[in-house]
Amino acid sequence: MTNTDVQAQTAGTADRDLIVRLAFGSMAAQTLRAAVRLRVVELVGETPRRAAAVAVDAGAELQATTRLLRALAGLGLLREHDPGHFSVTPTGALLDPGHPDSLTAFVGMFTEPAIVRAWEHLESSVRTGEVAFDSVFGTDFFSHLAQHPELSVKFNAAMSQAVSETAVALPYAFDFGRFATVTDVGGGDGTLLAGVLTAHPGLTGTVFDTAEGLAETPKTLARHGLERRCSLIAGDFFCSVPEGSELYLMKSVLHDWTDDQAVTILSHCREALAPGGRVLIVEPVLPEVVDPSTDADVTDGGVTYLSDLNMLVNVGGRERTRKDFEDVCRRAGLSVGAVIPLAEAAPYSLIEATAE
């Protein structure tokens, strides 16, 4: 066998391995879900512990628990030191709700049946362009959240965890110090705005969201000592936004909606914008052509395209290219200027828009 034959065979094996890993992706996700719900990471801890003790504390069957722990070790979340003896890896520690960078709520939400069931109808959404969630549940996603308060709490917690890296990176990616007032449109529990206000003491802010979205915001502001510098306003950004701020900030808002709906939201920001102000959009910006270096193992850039499909099946929105953002902004009377990648919060970018 020649070197060329060996290389071709190796490449073929790698290709097959990739397809197999992707096909097993939903199983890996449910493994994470089981680990979170059984509190595996909390029960194992950093010090090696026997599977038998974990099973007792989790109220689970020993052999099945051991198999779950070994699957988690195979995924790099636990380490098996000797047969049936496990500890948590630094990556696995992110599944501990007590970890400062915990992703437990995020994993719980994105493996939630309410999210996953619509994905079973991806083919139908691609064929029709219709939102699968609406036909599966008989209502749209955000109405479903409003009707199920316990799910709304989970969603808010997941969004708070998802925004944590951006809350650290964003305050230093833009000169907020030139301005005095900022409104976070669809700001949820206030994590992002708290990061901005903490880094820029001269700013005062407003978190604007639905009543459900603001449920946890007072706790966030109190935790950061921002009660006197930040107000809460409940409302509907499809009707209006609070007037008079110099900055209107939106993270992961526009991608939930169609282009026409995005134009409506942006138009309300444009109408309320103080002279000389800015609209700041924080979202992934897709390249015009998929980068061939995008990691096919569902990380980095690859996850953004999966997010795009998630918008299709669950809410009807989309991820956008720079041209797409320029188009919806132009229709709303705004002009896109700088687009700044947030390297420490990839794949997000900061899109700065001004009134035309």
Automatic annotation (TrEMBL):
Domain O-methyltransferase C-terminal, chain residue ranges per copy: 119-334
Lineage: Bacteria, Bacillati, Actinomycetota, Actinomycetes, Kitasatosporales
GO molecular function: methyltransferase activity
Listed name of the protein: Methyltransferase
Keywords: Methyltransferase, S-adenosyl-L-methionine, Transferase
InterPro entries associated with the record: COMT-like, COMT_C, COMT_dimerisation, SAM-dependent_MTases_sf, WH-like_DNA-bd_sf, WH_DNA-bd_sf
Any one Gene Ontology BP term: methylation
Gene3D superfamilies, alphabetized: 1.10.287.1350, Vaccinia Virus protein VP39 (3.40.50.150), Winged helix-like DNA-binding domain superfamily/Winged helix DNA-binding domain (1.10.10.10)
O-methyltransferase dimerisation domain: residues covered: 21-95
Ranges annotated as spanning the membrane: none
Taxonomy, superkingdom: Bacteria
Pfam family, one: Methyltransf_2
